[in-house]
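Sanity check. The docking grid for NDP depends on where the pocket ends up, so I'm generating a full predicted complex first rather than guessing from homology. Inputs follow.
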Amino acid sequence: KVVCVTGASGYIASWIVKLLLQRGYTVKASVRDPDDPKKTKHLQRLHGASERLQLFKADLLQEGSFDVAIHGCDGVFHTASPFYHAVKDPQVELIDPAMKGTLNVLKSCSKSSSVKRVVVTSSMAAVVYNERSRTPDVVVDETWFSNPDVCRANKAWYMLSKTLAEEAAWNFAKDHAVDLVSINPAMVIGPLLQPTLNTSAELILNLINGSSTFPNATFGWVNVKDVAEAHIKAYELPSASGRYCLVESVLHCSEVVKIIKDLYPAVAVPGKPADDNPNVPLYQVSREKYKSLGLDYIPFEVSIKETIESLKEKGFA
Ligand code: NDP
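Predicted complex below; grid placement will be based on this.
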């Protein structure tokens, strides 16, 4: 079968491409700049790529840009979306590419009669940012949606971009009878295939590169290999539907630092939080839907070790 992966050069997408090629799929991969070897070489080196990987140039903000890549595909994995926090103009840099880009991709999908299902990479950022309180006995699940007003009030622009993009995707799917599934991972860690540093791996790099403080923040964490597998199962299993929260564990960065110190006693980890704001909430996330895909999570300790080994191997650490 032929499938399309948007933003194929990215951290999560590269793993999706690798696993799809391993399973025998023909992959039409969209990248912004097919002539940049940093964005394509690691994909072209994947097993099966020389026979079954095709690269296409596409930009989220260009109308119809994805038509050619999506034409003739049975499934589409839409992962492309900017993920970084240091933005000057959130509307232009994050919200427009996330939201308009998602609609742009979905329009191409609905034009193409071959597309049977679209899997979009959303985020826990589109799940947990609302007025509901999170405490250790609260179990977050797929019925939770982030509230754009809460994101705006906190200037949480990336969270806003993912919330608006997912909302737009569900509305489009309803109006145009698109079979849509969303994957909502928390902070993704694990080995990097691409030669560049992505935002979630950079968070771990900052904990091992001599910084004096760690973020005073609690994150959910999940391994990139589990995230990629979940995307593929969500496409392959006819029974898959709706949203899938992907969180192996919820840990404050102070806990992450302790685990790194236990695994790597020689590493100088940061000793204190970046601020002393109180009330950083811990919470639980339901595993039921993820398990219904027939998958189990890679434990956090394994994921963090894989991340650090990969950062070292790539020369970042
Ligand atoms: P990367 O930064 O590695 O990948 C982002 C991809 O989006 C890149 O391929 C990038 O292309 C592409 N992209 C960005 N802007 C545009 C644009 N205007 N036109 C076309 N492509 C564009 O990040 P991740 O792999 O981490 O993120 C992939 C997806 O996963 C995103 O949707 C992100 O929101 C989501 N996600 C990530 C999490 C994480 O912790 N990593 C957690 C939850 C969700 P280029 O390489 O050319 O810049």
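Relevant for the grid: The pocket of NDP is lined by residues 7, 9-13, 32-33, 39, 59-61, 79-83, 97, 121, 123, 162, 185, 187-188, 198, 200 (CB under 6 Å).
Also worth noting: The chain has a mean pLDDT of 97.
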